[in-house]
Every structure is written in C-alpha cells, then in structure tokens.
Write a structure and sequence with these properties.
The structure holds 3 protein chains of 3 kinds. By secondary structure, chain A is an alpha/beta fold. Chain A has 2 domains: 26-214, no CATH class; 228-373, GMP Synthetase, Chain A, domain 3 (2-Layer Sandwich), CATH 3.30.300.210. In chain A, 35% of the residues lie in helices and 31% in strands. In chain A, the strands form 3 sheets. In chain A, strands 4-3-2-6-7-8-9-10 form an 8-stranded mixed beta sheet, sandwiched between helices. In chain A, strands 11-12-13-14 form a 4-stranded mixed beta sheet, with helices on both faces. Chain A has a two-stranded parallel sheet with strand order 1-5. In chain A, helix 11 (330-337) crosses helix 12. Chain A starts with a helix and ends in a 5-residue tail after the last strand. Chain B is α+β, with helices and mostly antiparallel strands. In chain B, the strands form 3 sheets. Chain B has a 5-stranded antiparallel beta sheet, sandwiched between helices. In chain B, strands 6-7-9-10-8 form a 5-stranded antiparallel beta sheet, with helices on both faces. A two-stranded antiparallel sheet of chain B has the order 11-12. In chain B, strand 4 (124-128) and strand 5 form a beta hairpin. The longest helix of chain B is centred in the C-terminal third of the chain and has 39 residues, at 419-457. Chain B is elongated, with a radius of gyration of 29 Å. The two termini of chain B are 46 Å apart. Chain C has a single domain (11-369), classed as Amino acid/polyamine transporter I. In chain C, helix 2 (26-38) packs antiparallel against helix 9 (181-191), helix 3 (42-65) runs antiparallel to helix 11 and helix 16 crosses helix 17 (304-320). Classes of the chains: A alpha/beta, B alpha+beta, C mainly alpha. The B-C interface holds B 3-9, 328, 330-334, 439-446, 449-450, 452-454, 456-457, 464, 466, 469-472 and C 4-7, 10, 12-13, 111, 115-116, 119, 124, 127-128, 130-131, 134-135, 137-142, 144-146, 148-149, 152, 262-267, 269-270, 273-274, 276-277, 280, 301-304. Chain A: Belongs to the GerABKC lipoprotein family. Chain A: One of its GO terms (biological process) is spore germination. Chain A: It is a lipid-anchor. Chain A: Residues 23-191 form the Spore germination protein N-terminal domain. Chain A: This is Ger(X)C family spore germination protein.
Chain lengths: 373, 514, 370
C-alpha cells in the first residue's frame, strides 16, 4: 500500500513536472515595454508609443521605439508584439506618458490605463507624466549625452520631485486622486524646447480633464501645502527696500527650509466652507544680497519673509479656486470633519471649493543665519 | 524510546530473525583438550593457512612443561611477547605451578569459541601440555596513528587533539575532560564478523534514560557483518534514512563531544573509527562549532546568524536566480534588469541550463579537490577558477551574473561547519533549482514548504529534530541561533531532554560582579 | 483513559493553530468586506465581532472541559449516543473539508491571478497539496509545529505593510459613523467568517498539553486574530480614499503593489508567495481534521488512508473543475452561514444540555445515596 501510494505520488509529480513551465519565458526573450505613451488619435481611439530595450551587444542603438494605433492598451500590446523581437510585455513599465491632447480632449481617458489595475501582474507604480507636445517628438528624441529614454525620464521625474519642483504621481496615486471626491488629480508635466525639460505640474479637474499648469516654483508651494515637500526646499524672496535700505534688485534673500508644518482646520458656516491654513516654516538663511543686519532685525526679516510667502500661497490658492481644482485635498479635511456639509457637495467639490473662504497664516523662523555676518 | 503515536509514525523495524547457519566448523560448546598437539592441530584447522599466525613452542623452564604461545603477528605487541611472556616463561622464576607472566590483563579460557576471537583481536594464548584450559594474555598492539589535529573540523582556539581509531584512546580523551564518576560507558558489540566495540558515553545523572534505552535497543538490534565507520552506524540507527538531513552528528573532536555530553546528550564511540556520534542531534546543532564558545559571545552570535543566512543563500540562491530570470523578472530593479539583459542577451542557454551546468561544474571541482593530494589540489583551484570561470564568460557560454551566483553559493556553503549538512544543502539546492525552473518563485516556495514539513516531522532518537524552533523553545535559543554569554546559560538545553538541567550555579554572575 | 497520548500540542502551538486558521486569507479580504458593509465604521464591527467570537470560543472550551480526554465525537458518543457521535463526525468532517477546500481554491485563485497566470489552476492546486500531505500525514503533533513555525516565519508581514506608510492619510478614517450605527451592527455577523476555525478546539482539546490554559490560549488566539485584522483594516482605511476602497478587490495585495524598494521591485508576487505559509493554515489543519473525523468514524487509528483518499479526490475533481474567484466568494458566503450555526450557535444548546445532564445525574446519585 505504502509503496503503491509512493509510486502514485511520484508519477503524479512527474506528470506535473512534464506539464510545468507554462509561465516560463526567459528574460532575454522578453521585450520589456519600459515607457508607454498614450495619445489620442483622430478616430476616437488611441495612438500608443513604447520604448523597449534591445539586449544585444551588437546593436548600436540600445532601444527600439514603436508606434501603433489601437482601441485599447491591451490591443496595442498585441500589435506591438508583431514588431518586437521578443514577446512583448508590460510588466516592467516604468513611466507612462500622456499627451496633453489626450488629457485635454478625451473625456474619461483614465479608463485606458485600466489594464494596469485589472491585470494582477502589471505594476501600479509607473510614474506619470503629461507631455506638452507631440508624443512622436518625445519618443524620437535622442540626445547623445543622455541615457536611454526610460532612464532619462525616471531620472528627471525623480530629481525634480525630490527638489519639490514637480510631483511624482504614480499610477496608484492618480487612481486614488481620481476616486477621491475631496481632491483633484495632478501629475508632472514636461515638454521639449531644444532639450527635454520638466515644466511643472499639470492640474486636472474632478473628471480628469486638464485645468491648469503650475510652474516649477508654484509646485514648491503646492508641495508645502500638501506637506509632501522634501526636507530642504529653496525659497528666494524679495525683502522690502525699507527694511534692507538697498535697491529692490539687491534686496533678495534665500532660505532653505528645515521643517514645514502645515495645519488645515476646516469649518462650515453659512453655506460656505472655511479653511484656516497655518504654515510654520523653520528655515536657514543661505544667501542675502543686502547688508541688512540679521541679528538685530531678525524678527522683522522673518515677518517680511512670512508676508512674502503668504502672498505666494494666496496667489496659488486663488489659481486653484479660479480653475475649481483642489490638488491639496482640502476636501479630505472637509469630509473628515464637516461630513454633513460635505455630503451635499460631494459630487461637485471643485465648485464648493472655489467658493470656500481660505485664510492662510504663515510663520517663519530662522534656525541658522549662516557662517558669515 | 519510541512514541506510540496515534497516527502511527514511521515504524522502527526490529531486525528480522534471519541468521544464516554459521559457516565456521566451530560449535559453541567445544572445549580445548588437555593435549597440546591436539590443541595446536585444532588451531591450524580453524585458522587454515593464515600467514600471520605464529605458534611458538617452548618448554617452561620452571616447571618443565611443554607449551606453545599462539598469536597473530601483526596484532600483537612484539615487545610484550618477548619481554613479558617469553622471557619469564623461559627464564628462572618462582615456580608454584602458576604460569607467571608480566602482563596486566590475563585470564583463563576453555572454550574454543572464546579462544579463537581472543586470538583474532590480538591477544596471545598460551597452551600447556596437560591443561584443558588456555591462558589468554593481553598483548594487543596494532598499528596506530598518533593523536593529531582533526582534519575535517579544524578549530582556531579549540584543543588540537582529535579522536583516533582506537576506542581505548578515545575513551581516554573523553575521560580527560570529565574525570567524574557519573560519566558512564555502556558497551555493546556490533557485527557478525567484525565484532566492533561500540560504547555509549553519557552522564548518568543528567542524560535521559529513555533515550539511552532507545539508543541501546537500536544498536543491539543491528545484525551486520562489520561496521567499518561511524557513518555506517549513523545510517543504520537513524530515525529516517530517506531524509537528506543527517539526524546524528558525527564529530572528530573530543572537546565538541564532551560539550555535547555535558548538555545531556549521548556520544557513541565506535572502535576503529575516528568519528564519534552525537545523539540526539537537533537541526541547529549542525550550525555550531566548538570555537563559538571560545570566542567572544557577540562575535560568536554574529557568526551563528551568518551561518543560518548562509544556509538559506546556499540552498536558495541559484533557484532564485532561475526564478527571477525566467519567471519573475518584475522583481529585478530596472537598472539591474538592463544590465542582466545585456549579459544574458549573448548567452545561448536558458538560465536553468546555465545554472545546472555551473553548479555541476562547481560540484566536480569540489569533489576533485577533496580527493587529490594537496600539491595537485591547488591545480584544481586554478583550473576551476581561471580556466572555467574566466574563459566560460569570455566565450559567452555563461553570463557573468551566473558565475557570481555560483561563487556566492559556494562561499556560503563553505561557512557551514558540518560536512554532512553541507551535503544535504547541495542536494536540496538542486531540487529547488528544478522547482524554480518549473514554477518560478512559487515553485521555490512549494519546495520550501515541503522542506519545512519534512524538517518538523523528523526526529532524532525520538526527540524533535527541529527542536528550539518547532516546537519553539525560547530558552534553547540562547545556544542555537545566537550564542548567549556563558553566564546566561544556566540550564541545559531542553532539546536534549536532560533529566537534570542545572548546568551552573549563580555564584559569580557576570563581569566584575556588581 | 488517555486515548490520545503522545500527540501533544503545546499552548503556543494551539494559539498558532487557531490564529493561523482564522486569519489565513481573511487578512487579504477583510478590509474591503468591512468597508463595503459598514464604511470605516467597520472597525467597530470588527471589535464587536471579536467579542462575540471570544464568548463563543469560551463556550466551546467550557464544553470540552467536561470531558477532557476525548474529542467532541467521543463525548457525544458517551453522553448522547452512538448515532450522535457518528452524525457529528460526518458533519464536522464535511464542514472542515468544505472549509479547507475554500481555502485552497482561494489560494489557487490568488496565485493564478497574481503569480502564475498561464499555468492551469489545477496544477497550482496540486502543487499546494504536496506540502499539505507532507505535513498532514504526520498528525497533530507535527501540525502544531507547522502552525507555530508558519506564524513565526510570517512575522515580517506587518513590517512590510508599514512600508506603505507614506501613502497614508488619517483623515480618510473619518467620519467613523458615516451611515450611523445600524450598518455597523449589521456587519457584525459578517465578521464571523473571518473568525471561523476556533471550533477545531473540539478536536484538538484532548491533545493539549496544558488543558487548564485552554481558555487563556483561545482568547489569546482570538486577540491576535483581532489585532492582525485591526492592523490591516486600519492600514487599508487610511491608505485608500473611501471612494477608492469601493473600486479595489483584495486591498491588502493592492497595497503591497505600491511598495518600491531599492534592491527589489514589484514585490507583491514574492510576498504573496511567501504568504502561502499563512494561507496554508486555512486548508492543512482542516484537511487533517476532516480525515481525522473520517478515521474516527470508521474506528481506525491511522488517518492517512483517509487523507490520501481526500487528496486524490480533490486532485481528480480539480482536473475537471476549479471554481473561479466569484464562485469562491459565493461558497464562502455559504460557509459563513454553516459556520455561524456550527461554531457560534450550536455550542450554546450543547453546553446547556450537558449542564442539565450533569445536574440530573448529580441529583439522581444523591437520591440514590439517600
């Protein structure tokens, strides 16, 4: 009995062994789609682009760029397969580039990336970029002093984001922003002017449609509001001439933040939301052009900086309210603490937000004035 | 000691009564006669034409009796025979009818079935005309090796005496460490033809009597021709001989053996073999080295953890390489992926073939190095390292990364202190590679689960092999995964099931005593 | 009478067994389920569910204390009648078979969807049965060791999940009572599914080394189960925005997918595979228990024959049909219903019955003495 059972088990295992290897595909036989570009085409479908690395020592060019027209991403994969050397595979996608045209013109364009969420083996961590221009231009862009396109894009997004000058929205984060009624989506924006460069942050409205662009500088303030700014944000601010006793073009001061704490307090009264935003910045002085004595006038300089920064914040928030977008997520606070009121405006938070009363208060304190007087 | 379990675990089968008829023309009751010639004739008959049999006829000077000393040439100490047997017999001595020889161990035997084995074991036998009994003289002296550093288990700070092939010497080596009257020896004889002396050493007031009984039972039930080596005995009395894991520890070091005895375990000495068995041996004991106790506890702990890590690297790394290059490449970071892709792009084989090829090559190099004499052995290293390692990559047959993986695996397996465990690791590595080649990381996981399932079901002499982690015994962790400071190890490990567990007193706890 | 000597389960092993059986794949499913039924207030439902479960498992232990050297089957035979024991054996065997089958099919489906997409499901299922047999054939003692080792080897899981911390936002947790108390209370019975398995105590009990600690152990096991659920639920609730939660299946795996490490990317496949140790607790013990009941029914001491039959049966059946994920969910709904009756409801009248019986027999004996 024991022996027969053993034999039976062994032959079963052997059978499985013979039947195994279904999912096996050796790495060098795979064409990894590292960058996926999605553009709208003229026939209500999409034009997709991709970059795949070529694993061959003999090949001069290390990547292969492809372009197909399709109705869905999955369909485009089948079409790509015809062009690529190995079996085409999106499991290693690093960056997804949307054209500005797609984001601007195609309603519900977010549905096109559904395959990344639904297919259990696809990643949801590719970084997202909106490209202002023709995607063809980006995918054909090849600068001799730059690494291959996927690495270049990753590097640019990462470094701009770590300096808080842009955002690193991944697919998963976009998914959250898309479904969160108290927030509107945003993603990094780039363009090509002579060289590829980061342009800032593209703000989208509740439906995902393009609404506005924030410059690199403005993005810094957005990140501070979101409390996602890195530890060291550079701020260069003008001081009033009355204080510095110097002409305006010599009155600049540069700060590096050490710690930014943002508190948002929501309240609701008279059919209107109100948010008290209190931002405390502790920063080091890294540069000043005037001869102002920081020891004596520290309080005044701090206050002047705070005023200046507050102005920037207010400008930024005005911009949000004008476009009825809420990338900061004020709505999340409204939902958490003023749920009864929020429930009524849940489906059109952008509008409610644009009518909200937002009061910003900024406190700046210097932690260090540098190694010279 | 056997657990009669509900679910009927693997039955330890007792030896079946299939003794063949003795071929020697020697009945057990036959006794020596009083005629010398008859006896010598019988001896010649029994031994046939054994060329090393020596019969020295003589006349005892003091009594004038005819006599003969019979012994095997190579197994006896010539000095003792010449000076302590022949000289007194031939020379002038007191004569009161007692055969006086100056030998420590003497005795009288009458039965041939006792006399013959005595001769075969190196004793000399004195027959005297007119006496129906033979004088047996302990004149054993066979070729011996001097006590040397153990080969397989070198140690930096430990003692430099290893066990040798003579059981008496080995007993002496153990006694030197533990001159205590509770150190007991249970002697058994194994082997139909070999008559191998086997001795179980333990501390009578500490070790668990149930385990002793089980051990004695298993050894005494053996019915084999001869036991040449301790490894044979280990395989014959193991709980599960089908397992890749060694369930009994073999060591050549007296200090290691004694350390195990003190922990409440048993040590089995086998005559003619320099290795001794340690039982019961839990899985973790294969990761300990005697040096752990003589180095500082913090570094010993680090090294022990390193060994366990090396164990996993050694069984799993090539399999993991196969899995990530053929199945789960999404695990590889993008930059590494591009680099590996570049290497792999020019290699004609699939990762599995590549890995199997390199691992087999490694095994061959290792096996070649073991048997070759030292001067030639170095050549193997050069051939293996430079010719195969370097050339194979340049020829584009194997990718760089694979060579790195193989080298890393090899280094990891060298860290493990026990040879038998390394052998097990090598086997498991190949099975995991096959599993990985079929189902990627899922295959590895299934392999690991089977391994875990097997490991926890194993027993070493009825005690759990995976003791200290399944079942969890936190107090044993002090001397398994880590090596706690000595003053913290006040109790003997639970895994050895000692009946008396108090190892040391709290008199001087630690440091400067404050 | 010590019928089941030498198969002893230590207290830690017992805690691990119950905890492993109850948690297993619940860890993947519970956040979405709670959120669907009660929003973020599901946390409260979870706590209430734990309290009910603790009470129910204490009742089970109380029953078993009345007959410490036998399983519930022996007990029913002795106190109620032969047919009762047999009926119970059939019911419990079927119940645990069903329980284990759902567990293994669910795991197969997860593997199929996330790791081995092209491998046929029955092969995956068959592979999972190999370690099952290796462990289960050796009986309760080895099962106990397996349980504690699996839990022990899975302690890294919470730490991995903490890597998603930077994506979390505590504001998503509020308001807790979004839809009032009613949905929260209504969701309590639905949490029972995630606690099913403590009933195994009725079979483990005679094997326990320290029976006096059984109540403590089962409360600890339930407590640990609650802690693990609480951990993953809170983490999911602060990770997903409330609306997004409705869009995501298996939120725990989704969270894993967002982890990016320097030396390894897209780790979810690896972690799911390593998580199989815990997953396997949802079918290895039940299959063993099921074959144990079958062996008891036929009066055999060796359960391995039944285990083999069970496994071969599952393999053959799976060659033709492996349920899809949605069917599995439907099956688990059925299991919830059956389990609620068997594990939560039935023990109460049973305990009352035994108490009554004890009182009557005491009275009778007193009367006889008089």
């Amino acid at each position: 009995m024991r022996r027969t059972a053993f034999k039976l088990a062994l032959s079963l295992i052997a059978a499985v062994c013979l039947a195994g290897c279904y999912d096996k595909v050796d790495m060098e036989d795979v064409s990894f789609s590292l960058v996926v570009g999605i553009d709208a085409n003229e026939e209500n479908g999409i034009r997709t682009f991709t970059t795949i690395p070529v694993f061959s020592k003999n090949a001069k060019k290390k990547t292969q760029e492809l372009k197909v027209e399709a109705r869905t991403l999955r369909e485009s994969r089948d079409k790509f397969d015809a062009f690529s050397i190995g079996s085409f595979n999106g499991r290693k996608a690093q960056v997804i580039v949307f054209s500005k045209r797609l984001v601007q013109q195609v309603p519900d364009w977010f549905r096109y990336v559904d395959v990344f969420f639904r297919d259990g083996r696809n990643p949801i961590t590719p970084k997202l970029v909106m490209f202002d221009g023709d995607l063809e231009q980006l995918f054909r862009y090849q600068s001799p002093d730059q690494p291959m396109l996927p690495l270049m894009l990753i590097g640019m997004i990462e470094s701009a984001s770590s300096r808080s000058e842009s955002v690193k929205t991944t697919l998963q984060e976009l998914h959250r922003q898309m479904y969160d009624p108290g927030q509107t989506p945003y993603l990094a924006e780039m363009s090509i002017e002579q060289d590829a460069k980061m342009k800032g942050t593209a703000l989208l409205d509740r439906k995902g449609k393009y609404a506005a662009t924030l410059s690199l500088r403005e993005t810094t303030y957005l990140r501070m509001l979101q409390m996602t700014s890195g530890p060291a944000v550079n701020l260069t601010l003008p001081l009033p001439s009355s204080l510095t006793k110097a002409p305006p073009d010599k009155s600049w001061i540069s700060l590096v933040t050490e710690r930014v704490r943002t508190r948002i307090k929501p309240s609701y009264s008279g059919g209107r939301f109100r948010f008290d935003v209190r931002i405390r910045i502790s920063a080091s002085v890294i540069e000043k052009l005037s001869h102002i004595d920081l020891d004596k006038l520290q309080k005044q300089v701090e206050a002047a900086c705070a005023r200046e920064i507050r102005g920037k914040f207010e400008e930024l928030i005005d911009k949000f309210q004008a476009s009825a977008v809420d990338p900061v997520g004020f709505g999340i606070y409204a939902r958490a603490y003023e749920y009864a009121a929020f429930r009524g405006v849940k489906d059109d938070w952008g509008k409610a937000f644009s009518e909200a009363d937002i009061r910003v208060k900024v406190l700046v304190s210097f932690a260090d004035e540098g190694s010279v007087k | 000691m056997k657990f009669p379990s509900l679910f009927g675990q693997r039955k330890y089968r007792p030896a079946k009564g299939r003794k063949p008829a003795a071929t020697a023309p020697l009945s057990s009751g036959e006794e020596a006669s009083d005629a010398l010639e008859e006896n010598l004739g019988r001896i010649r008959e029994l031994f046939g034409d054994a060329s090393d049999l020596n019969v020295r006829r003589l006349r005892i000077r003091s009594t004038g009796e005819e006599a003969a000393v019979v012994y095997l040439e190579g197994l006896t100490d010539k000095n003792a025979i010449n000076n302590n047997v022949l000289k007194p017999l031939l020379g002038e001595t007191d004569s009161e009818g007692v055969l006086s020889v100056t030998i420590g161990r003497v005795g009288w035997l009458t039965k041939w079935s006792d006399i013959v084995p005595a001769i075969l074991k190196g004793k000399s036998v004195l027959f005297v005309e007119g006496r129906a009994e033979a004088r047996v003289l302990g004149t054993e002296g066979w070729p011996q090796r001097s006590i040397e550093d153990p080969q397989l288990e070198a140690s930096l700070k430990g003692a430099h005496q290893g066990f040798v092939e003579t059981i008496e010497q080995n007993v002496a080596l153990i006694r030197r460490y533990l001159p205590h009257r509770q150190l007991k020896f249970a002697n058994l004889t194994v082997g139909r033809r070999g008559d191998t002396r086997v001795s179980i050493v333990y501390l009578a007031d500490v070790a668990n009597p149930e385990i002793l009984k089980e051990l004695e039972d298993r050894i005494s039930q053996l019915d084999v021709d001869v036991i040449i080596n301790t490894g044979e005995l280990a395989e014959l009395i193991e709980d599960n001989p089908y397992s890749p894991f060694p369930q009994l520890l073999v060591t050549e070091r007296p200090d290691a053996a004694v350390s195990q005895i003190v922990q409440g375990r048993f040590v089995v000495l086998v005559d003619r073999s320099p290795g001794v068995l340690v039982a019961p041996a839990p899985f973790t004991s294969f990761f300990q080295s005697i040096d752990d106790y003589s180095t500082r506890w913090s570094i010993a702990t680090f090294i022990r953890l390193l060994r366990f890590m090396a164990f996993f690297v050694s069984i799993g790394l090539p399999a993991f390489y196969i899995a990530v290059t053929s199945f789960n490449f999404e695990l590889i970071p993008i930059k590494l992926l591009l680099a590996i892709g570049e290497y792999r792009g020019s290699v004609p084989f699939s990762p599995f073939v590549e890995a199997i090829f390199m691992e087999l090559t490694l095994e061959m190099i290792r096996e070649a190095g073991v048997r070759l004499p030292a001067p030639v052995g170095q050549t193997v290293g050069i051939v293996g390292g430079i010719v195969i390692g370097q050339a194979i990559v340049q020829a584009g047959l194997i990718s760089n990364l694979m060579v790195i993986v193989v080298a890393f695996t090899a280094i990891a397996s060298f860290i493990l202190p026990n040879f038998d465990m390394v052998a097990a690791v090598r086997l498991i590595r190949f099975s995991l590679m096959i599993a990985a080649a079929m189902f990627g990381i899922f295959g590895i996981m299934i392999g690991m689960m089977v391994l875990i399932g097997h490991l926890i079901a194993l027993e070493s002499l009825g005690t759990p092999f995976a003791s200290s982690f399944a079942p969890i015994r936190f107090s044993d962790w002090k001397d398994t995964f880590i090596r706690a400071p000595l003053w913290k190890m006040g109790r003997r490990p639970e895994g050895s099931r000692a009946v008396q567990s108090d190892r040391q007193g709290p008199t001087r706890p630690e440091g400067d005593g404050r | 009478m010590k019928k089941y000597a030498f198969n002893e389960i230590t207290t830690i092993q017992y805690i691990s067994l119950i905890n492993g059986m109850t948690v297993s794949f619940g860890f993947i499913e519970i956040p979405a389920d709670l959120h669907k039924k009660a929003g973020t207030g599901g946390l409260i439902s979870l706590l209430l569910g734990t309290l009910v479960t603790m009470a129910a498992s204490l009742i089970v232990v109380q029953i078993m204390r009345r007959f410490p050297n036998g399983t519930i089957l022996d007990m029913l035979t002795r106190r109620v009648g032969k047919w009762a024991g047999r009926l119970a054996a059939v019911v419990i065997a079927a119940y645990f078979l069903f329980y284990g089958y759902i567990g293994i099919v669910y795991s197969t489906r997860v593997i199929k969807a996330r790791v081995l997409q092209e491998t046929p499901a029955y092969i995956t299922l068959f592979l999972l049965l190999i370690p099952t047999y290796v462990v289960a054939r050796n009986g309760f003692r080895v099962l106990g060791r397996y349980a504690e080792l699996s839990i022990w080897l899975s302690l890294w899981i919470p730490f991995v999940f903490l890597l998603v911390w930077r994506h979390t936002n505590w504001n998503y947790l509020f308001p807790l009572l979004e839809r009032g108390w009613l949905p929260i209370l209504k969701a309590v019975p639905d949490t029972f599914f995630y606690f099913l398995g403590f009933f195994a105590t009725t079979l483990f009990y005679p094997f326990l080394q320290k029976k006096e600690k059984a109540s403590f152990a089962i409360l600890t096991a339930n407590g640990l189960t609650m802690l693990s659920y609480l951990f993953i639920t809170i983490l999911s609730f602060i990770f997903f925005s409330p609306e997004e939660m409705k869009e995501v299946n298996q939120p725990s795996i989704y969270m894993l997918k967002t982890i990016e490490l320097r030396f390894i990317e897209q780790v979810e496949g690896l972690f799911i595979v390593m998580y199989m140790l815990i997953f396997s607790m949802s079918w290895i013990p039940p299959f063993l228990l099921s074959s144990f009941c079958a062996a008891w029914l036929f009066g055999r001491a060796d359960h391995r024959l039944f285990l083999r039959v069970l496994m071969i049966g599952i393999v053959l059946f799976s060659c033709f049909y492996v349920p899809g994920l949605n069917t599995t969910y439907a099956l688990s709904d059925k299991l919830t219903k059956v389990g609620t009756v068997l594990e939560y409801a039935l023990p109460v009248p049973l305990l009352l019955f035994f108490m009554l019986q004890a009182r009557i027999s005491r009275k009778r004996s007193r009367r006889r003495r008089l």
